[in-house]
Amino acid sequence: MVCNCTLIFYGVVTLVILAYLWIKKKYRFFEERGIPFVTPKFPLGNLWGVGSKRHTGMFVREMYSKLKGRDVLGGVFFFIRPVVMPLDLDLIKHILVKDFQYFHDRGIYVNERDDPLSGHLFALSGQRWKHLRTKLSPTFTSGKMKMMHSTIIAVAQEFQQFLGECANKKEEVEIKDILGRFTTDVIGSCAFGVECNSLNDPDTEFRRMGKKVFDFKGFEFLKLFFLSMFPDIGRALHIRATKVDVSEFFMRLLRETIDYREKNNVKRNDFLSLLIQIKNTGKLEGDDVDLGTMSFEELAAQTFLFFIAGFETSSSTMTFALYELAQDQKVQNQAREEVNRILEKYNGQYTYEACMEMKYIDQIIKETLRMHPIVPNLIRSLTKDYTIPDRNLAFKKGTFFSIPVFGIHRDADIYPEPNKFDPDRFTEENIKNRHQYSWLPFGDGPRNCVGMRFGMMQTRVGLATLLSKYRITPTSRTPIPMEYEPTSAVLSPKGGMWLKIEKI
Question: Rounded CA gap, 16 and 471, in Å?
Answer without folding.
Answer: 63
